[in-house]
Recover the amino acids of this structure.
C-alpha cells in the first residue's frame, strides 16, 4: 500500500484529494491547522490519519513526517495544498501581512517538502504543489498572493531538476476559479462575470483538481516532471 501526505487536507481541494486517494487504495495522512471537527469527520468518513500542525513550524513538521515514515513505511506522494488568500491594494499590504502570506504559501511548502524528501530519496516518489492561475499571470489586488504562488512554480521547476535522478518527480497544479471556501466571498454576480470570460463557461470543482493530482501521482505520468498544469477551463491560455 502506498502512502500519501496531504497538507490542508480538511477542506476544498485537499479534502477531495483525501477522498480520491483513499478510494484508490492509498493510506492517507493529512496535516491541518485548526478545525478539529472537520478533521475528525473526514477521518471517520475515509479512514485517513490526521495530524494537527502549523506548516510554518518546521520542528513540528519534522516530528509528523518522521512519525509517518517510522510507523507506516515512508511517504510515496506529497501534496502541498495548504494555503491562504487575501485581497487588498498593494499599498495597504503591511510587512506582517506580506510575511504571513509567504510564510504559509511558500515557506510552508519548503518546510514540509524538505522533511518528506529526506525519506523519499531511497525509494522515489511524487511531489505535487498547488499553485494558482495567479502564480502564472498575476492578479490585481493580490500581489502578495500572486508572488507566493509564482514562487511555488519556480520552486517546482528547480526541485524537479534536482531530484529527477533520485526517482522523485515534482509537478505543480495551477487552478483557476474553483468552487471552494477560498472563493466563497464571491457573489453570484461575480461568478457570472468570471464565467463569461471562461471558454468552458463554469467554475471548476475540487474533485477535478483531485483527479489531476492523482494522475500526477500515478505511473501514468511517469515521464512528467517540472511542469505547471493549469486547470482553469481555458480562462488564461
Amino acid at each position: 500500500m502506498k502512502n500519501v501526505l496531504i497538507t490542508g487536507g480538511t477542506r476544498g481541494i485537499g479534502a477531495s484529494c483525501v477522498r480520491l486517494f483513499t478510494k484508490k487504495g492509498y493510506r492517507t495522512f493529512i496535516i491541518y491547522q485548526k478545525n478539529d471537527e472537520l478533521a475528525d469527520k473526514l477521518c471517520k468518513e475515509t479512514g485517513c490519519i490526521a495530524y494537527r500542525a502549523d506548516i510554518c513550524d518546521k520542528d513540528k513538521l519534522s516530528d509528523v513526517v518522521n512519525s509517518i515514515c517510522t510507523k507506516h513505511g515512508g511517504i510515496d506522494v506529497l501534496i502541498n495544498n495548504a494555503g491562504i488568500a487575501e485581497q487588498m491594494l498593494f499599498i495597504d499590504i503591511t510587512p506582517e501581512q506580506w510575511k504571513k502570506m509567504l510564510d504559509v504559501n511558500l515557506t510552508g511548502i519548503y518546510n514540509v517538502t524538505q522533511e518528506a524528501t529526506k525519506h523519499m530519496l531511497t525509494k522515489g516518489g511524487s511531489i505535487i504543489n498547488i499553485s494558482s492561475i495567479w502564480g502564472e499571470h498575476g492578479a490585481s489586488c493580490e500581489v502578495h498572493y500572486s508572488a507566493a504562488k509564482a514562487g511555488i512554480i519556480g520552486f517546482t521547476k528547480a526541485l524537479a531538476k534536482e531530484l529527477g535522478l533520485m526517482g522523485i518527480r515534482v509537478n505543480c497544479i495551477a487552478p483557476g476559479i474553483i468552487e471552494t471556501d477560498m472563493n466563497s466571498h464571491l457573489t453570484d454576480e461575480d461568478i457570472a462575470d468570471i464565467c463569461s470570460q471562461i471558454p468552458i463557461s463554469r467554475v471548476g470543482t475540487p474533485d477535478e483538481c483531485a483527479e489531476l493530482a492523482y494522475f500526477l501521482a500515478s505511473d501514468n505520468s511517469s515521464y512528467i516532471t517540472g511542469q505547471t498544469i493549469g486547470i482553469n477551463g481555458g480562462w488564461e491560455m
